[in-house]
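Homework help board

Subject: predicted structure for assignment chain

Our instructor gave us this sequence and asked us to write out the predicted structure in token form, then describe one feature. I got the tokens but I'm not sure how to describe them. Can anyone check?
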Amino acid sequence: MTVDSALTCAGRQPSLRRVLTLWDLVWYGIVLIQPIAAVPLFGIADQLSLGHVATTILIAMVAMMFTAVSYGAMANVYPMAGSAYTYVGRGLNLHLGFLTGWVMLLDYLIIPIINTIYGALTLNRIVPSVSYMAWVALFIVIITALNLLGVQTTSRTNQILLVAMSLVIGMFFVMAISYVGRRFGVLALFSTVPFYNPRTFHLPAVATATSLAALTYIGFDGITTLTEEARNPKRDIMRATVLVCLVTGILSGLQVYLAQLVWPDYLTFPDANTAFMDVAQRAGGKRLFDGFAFILILASLGSGLAGQAGAARLLFGMGRDGALPSAFFGYVGSKRRVPSYNILLIGLCAFLGAFVLSFERAAELLNFGAFLAFIGVNVVATRHFHSLGKWGATLISVSGAIFCICIWWSLPSPAKVAGSVWLCAGVIYLAILTRGFRQDPVMINSIDRSSSDE
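My token output:
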């Protein structure tokens, strides 16, 4: 008799060990988001905001902290689940929950594309003699081959990568402060211009850039997937999600603030997509340039690998549960026991997407789905807190919903058009599945972000 069956016979359901402390959860969340999350966005967000990227990072942080409270609350209400899909489906309506899962599927499909684009752009900056197309192809072949072999990024690998990132970021802080002090004087280190420059400040531009800068925080909700392993989930899940957003905001804000001081003119980047590498080279020379290139490639590879695995896992779950054709999407290879058809499909989508989309457009499309999910969770939490008469918490969730709606609304039109087409396709597909919405949709139990956002 197995341990699980013995527990069942004894009248107890098997469960995970509750061993994670608050700081274990915070560490996990930081690893998930990565401390260099703002680096790929810097140049584009700096230009979109007309030199106010630090401001956009802080505005997005406030919205994410409010939303983190909502996620923490829903993790307590539904401790067996860990996604906006489940929270909206159970807290509001199963059909709305399915559509939330549908837009989350868009996120899963976009994540490998984003990492492929940025990994190829970084490699192209280091070895410009090799074309971008060739680097894209190589990147896709590597992550697809590793996923077909069943190789996944381990927690230990993530921690090693986090240490490497932290060391390079620490070097950047020291060298950037030294550079600004030598070049512009010590008082320049306390400039308020990166936050507000009256000559260039334009609220619509800042709002649009904030919708991109919010990508810095995507993945914080993965902490809720550890609810069953937290020692004190009712207290620590909410605290951890808020703390991770706060720590990420402070670290990212400091990074882009110093970057703006080192390179004040946002119009002169050689390439906005890889602008932070040029900032690093100006502050610390080729050594720091190479250091950032190295960790950006590793981060893109790790996130792309996990993103492809997460997308394939989600498609497999939908195929297994009957939400997608099971013959293809529910297939598992007999040798490696991986959803090989899905992995190959995601690889093909990432390859094509890397040529059709720019990094900026892919990031905006990712935020289309992410912020719709965030809005849904804030609405569910508002309803929950209101029913309990917790007016302070209700105000926080309402504020989170308003912030997220404003950020979502500020997305550029191409992202909203493309995202809306995807959403409409989901509505049509849901109508077919449920015979004109007369039946409840299938509950997909395999959606969680922890396997895709690192």
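Reply (TA_rk): Your tokens look well-formed. For the description, you could write something like this. Residues 275-320 form the longest helix (46 residues). That's the kind of observation they're looking for.
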